[in-house]
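> @MW can you paste both from yesterday?
MW: sure, first one:
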Amino acid sequence: MTDTPQQVSHPVPDEERTWWKESVVYQIYPRSFADSDGDGIGDIPGIIDRLDHVADLGVDVIWLNPVYESPQRDNGYDISDYRSIHHEYGTMADWEELLAQVHDRDMRLVMDLVVNHTSVDHEWFQRSRRGDPEYEDYYIWREGDADGDPPNNWESFFGGSAWAYDEVREAYYLHLYDESQPDLNWRNPAVRRDIFDMMAWWLEKGIDGFRMDVINLLSKAPGLPDGDPDGDWVGAEHFVDGPRILDYLEAMDERVLSNYDILTVGEMPRLTVETAREYAGEGGPLDMAFHFQHTKLDYDGDERWSVGDWDLPELKEITRRWHDGLSDEGWNALYWENHDQPRVVSRYGDPEEYRRESATLLGTFMLTRSGTPYVYQGQELGMTNANWESMETLADVDARNRAQELMETEGYESFEEIADVVGYRSRDNARTPMQWDDSEHAGFTDGEPWLPVNTNYEQVNVAAAQEGDSVTEYYRSLIDLRTEHDAFVYGTYDDLYPDHDRLAAYTQTLEFPDGGVSERMLSVLNFSGSTETVDLPTTVENADLLLSNYDRDAIAPETDHEPYEARIFRLE
C-alpha cells in the first residue's frame, strides 16, 4: 500500500511569489557613475567597468536613468530620439554589451520611460511646430488669450508659466517641466501608437521593465481650465491623475506590458494610497508606484524650497498607512534617495558626527520592510549633500531657475542669501560623481568632471569601504538577510511604538496560510543622536540578534540603544 504524500504548507505559496517583489533594485545615474574616456561625463563603458561593485552588493535589478539621445537640458529627461543612445554615453553596441553583462551576472535591467514630454529637438516637435499635418497634434498647442498672454495660469514644476510661445507656429505649447520639454498630447491616438511601438521595441531587445517618469501626468483636463492660484503647483488638479489616465495606462498594459514578464514602477506626483491601488492594485496596469510623502517631511509646510524640522512619528504614520493600504491589494516601492532627492543622511541623519551610523540605520529602515527596495548609487557608501557656493556651480536647471526666481521676486540680492536652502534642495546633491577612491576626482574620471566631486571623497569612497565595518558592508549584510528571510519581503508590518519621537520598533511577521507563525523579525532603530532606552512589549527571551550597526554580540532588544543604532532580531 502506497502512502499518500502529505501536503506541505508554505508561508508564501508559489502563485503569490514574483521575482520583482523579491528583488533589490540599484539605480544608476549614468552621467555621474563612471567615466571611461576622460571627458568628465559618465558613460556606458564606465558602467560596464564598474558592474562588479553593483553585483557584489547582492542586488537583483539595475534601473538605468535615461541614456537616450538628448540635448541634455535636463540631463537626459529631454529626449530627442527614443531609439538612439546619446553620444556622450556611448553607442547602441555599448548599451547591448551592458545588457549582456548585466544578464551574465544574473541581474536584470530596467530602463527609464519618459513619455509625458520630449525634447524640443525631437523630430515630432520640429514637425509639429511647422504644422506638418501628420504631427501638428502631437503636442498641446493653444492660442494666447485676448491680450496675447498664455492660455491659462498653469505653472511649470520648474517655476514660471507652463506655457512657452513658439515663434515658428505662432502659438503656445504646454510644458509642465522645463520649456525645452513640451508635453505630448496623449489624446492623439497616433501619439499612443508611437509610444507603445517604441516600448515594445526596447522590450524585444531584452530589457526587464520600465521605471515610468511622472506617468500620472499624461492626461490633461479637456478645455485646459484655470488652476487654483493658491495651490502649491497651480493647475495640478487638472493634470495630476487626469480624467483619462487609467484608460491610457490600461491600453499600455494591454498593448505592451502584459506581453512580457517585467517590472513596472510609476513615478507619480501627489500619489495617495487610494489612487495607488487603482494603478498598482489587483488587476492594475502597473506593478508598483513611487510616492513622495516621506520625502516631504523636512519641508517647512508645503513649500519644497524651504527647510523645516521633521518628525519621526509622522514618518512612522506614513509607513504604516502605505503598508496597511497596499498589503492586500498592491505593492510598495521603498526608497530614500534617487536622482531627484538630496542625500538622505544629510536630511534625516547626521552627516558629520554619526554619518556611518545614521546611513546604516536609514538603510535598515528601508531594507527590513515588505516592498521592493531601491538603492540609489552612493547610498551604499553613505554619500552626503555637497556644498554649493555659487549659482555657477549648480547644473540642476530646477535649482538654477528657483534661485533666479527667489532673487527676482523675494528681494534677495545675492545667491549667498539663499545658498542654504537652494543647496540643501538641489538635485545636484544626488548627481555629484560616484566616489570610487581617494585619487583626484574620486576615481570617477581622468578629466574634469561635469559636476564637482563632493569634498569628502577622500574618506567616503568605494575603495575605503572594502576595509573595516563600512556602510557598504552593512548594506551587503542587509541584502543577504532580506534574501534569506521571506518575512522581510512578504511579512506583515506592525509598529510597536508609533508615537515615540526618537525610536522606531517594529515587527515583520510571516504566517502560514492555514495559521501559525513562520517567522517574526524585530527591528529596533534609534533615530536620535543620544542614548535611548525602551521596554519592548513583545517576547524577547529567545531573540537572536541577526545584525547591528554597532559591534554587538547577542544582546537583548530592550537594553540601551546608542545614537543611531540599528538592531535586527529574529523572535521566532
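MW: second:
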Amino acid sequence: MSNSLFRKKSIAKIVKDAEQGFGDGHDAGGLHKILTVRDLTFMGIAAVVGAGIFSTIGTAAFNGGPGISLLFIITAVTCGFSALCYAEFASRVPIAGSAYTYAYVSFGELIAWIIGWALILEYAIGNIVVAISWSGYFNNLLMGLGVHLPGWLLNDPSTAFKNFTNATAELASGKTLTDDARQMFQGYISTWNSAPIVAGKHFFINLPAFIIVVLITTLAYIGIKESKKTTNFMVIFKILVIIFVIILGFFYVKPANWHPFLPNGFGGVLAGVSAVFYAYIGFDAISTTAEECRNPQRDLPRGMIYSLIICTILYILIALVLTGMVNYSELKVPDPLAYVFHKIDQKWISYIISISAVVATTSVMLVFQVGQPRIWMSMSRDGLLPKRFSEVHKKYKTPSYATIITGIVVGVPTLFMPMDMMTDLTSIGTLFAFVLVSAGVLLLPKNENRHGGFRLPYINGRFIVPILFIVFIYLMKDRIVTSAQNLGKDSLQEVLFLVYMLIGVILSSLTFIRSYSMIPILGVLSCAYLLIEIPAISWVWFFVWMAVGLVIYFFYGYRKSRLAAQQGNLKI
C-alpha cells in the first residue's frame, strides 16, 4: 500500500497530457492562453499588496519600531528562496495546480493531496479573511460619504456579542475613558440592542463581505481575460496611490522618530513575523494560471520574482514612512496609513487611502478566487476529486463548476464567521506549501523536460548551511534549554520548536554529506521556522483540518485515482 500512496507522476507524462488534452473531457486546451509576464507580475502584486500593507503592518511596527523594515527584508529573502523553487517547478512543470502538481511530481500522491488540501486554507479560507477586511474598509468609505449601514449587517454574531460584552463591562467598571473610547463602546451596545431578533437570538450577518465575494466569483467565472484586465487596472491604481503616499509622507517624516531604530530589540522585530508574512501571502497564486500563459516556462518565473521584488521595495518604504511620521507606539491601529495622515491633519489623503484599501483587497480576492478553482481542477483531473471540478465552460473557458463551489465555500462563511485565528490558519497553509515546494526541488530529475526556461542556480550548501545552523543554535541556546525543560508540561509550541531543531540538524547533516543546493535547503529551514512561530492553537485546528482531508482522500481519492488505474493498481 505504501508504494501506491506515494506513486508519482512523471514530468514527461504531465507535459504530454497537457499537449494532448487530459481525456475524459478535461481539455486543457480549452483555457485561454493570454497571460504575459506583465500580467503575471501584476497578478503577483495584486495578491501581495492588500490587507497587509493597509492594516497588519501597523501591529508589526508597534512591536518592532522602525526596525520593522529589516523584517520585511528578512521575510522577502525567506519568500525569495521559495519563489526561486516555485520558479524552477513552474519552468519544468508548466501546468495548473501550483504546489499540488509540484508535490505530485516530487513526493507522490498522498503528499500531493495533503498539500492540495492545505492550499484550500491559503486560498479559500484566506479569501474569507480578505472579504471580511474588505467589508470593514468599505464601511469606512461609506461613512466618509455620510452613509451608515445598520451594525447588524456588518458583523458576525460572535464578534458582535464579544464587543457588546466587553463594552458593557468597560462602561460599568467606572474607569476614566476618553470620549472616543466611550463613544465606541456605546456604539457596540447600540449595535447589539438594535439587531433584529430571529428565533429568540440577535441576528447578525456581514452582508458587504458576502456581496463582494459574489461579484468577484462572477468575474472569475466569466473569464480570465476579464479578470486580467480588472486586475491590471486595480494594481496600477493602488501602486500609484502607494507611491503618492510614500512621496508625500516623506515630507512629514521626523528623523527623531527613527530613534531608537530597534526600541524592543531584535526580539521585538521578530514579534511581527506573523503580521509581516501575512503581507506576502499570495505571490505563488500566479503559478495556478500556468495553462493560461502564452509562455509559462519563461514568464511564470519572471512574474513571481518581479512581483516579489516590487512589493518588498514598496513595503520597506511604507514602513520607513509610517515610523518616521509618528512614533511607532501609536501604530497599533486597524488602518495605520489613514491614521498617520489623519494625525497630521491631512484627512483628504486618508479618504484616498480608504478608497485604495478597498481596491487593494478587491484585487487580492480576485487573484485568490481565480487560483483556487484551478487547483481543484488539477486534483479532479487526477481523479482525487469528482470529475465536475475539472469542467471547462464552453463559452468562458474557465473551470466553471469549481469556480461556483469556490464562491460558495468562501461566500457563505463570510456572513457569520469571525476573523480570529483564520489569519494564522492561512499562514500555516501557505508556509506548508512553501516548505514542500522547496524540498521538492531536491527530488526533481536532473535533466527531464529541460527546454530552456528558468534554472535554479546551484550553490553548494555543504559548508554554508551547517555553519548558518550552528550560528542559529548559538543564538537560540536559551530557548533550546527552556523548551527542553518544559517538554513534559504539555506545551505544543515548545514541542514544535524542538521538532524544528531536530529537522534542522538532520537537513544540515544531509547537506554536508550530499552537498545539497543551498537555496532549497534554506527555503525549507526558514519557512519551517516561521511555521513554528504561529500560535499552537492554530496548529491544533490545522491538524483537525488535515485529518478531515485524509478521511476524504482514503474514502474517495485513493480509490478513484487515475494514476492508480493507469498503473494497474486499482480499478476506477
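> thanks! The first strand starts at residue 197 and ends at 198.
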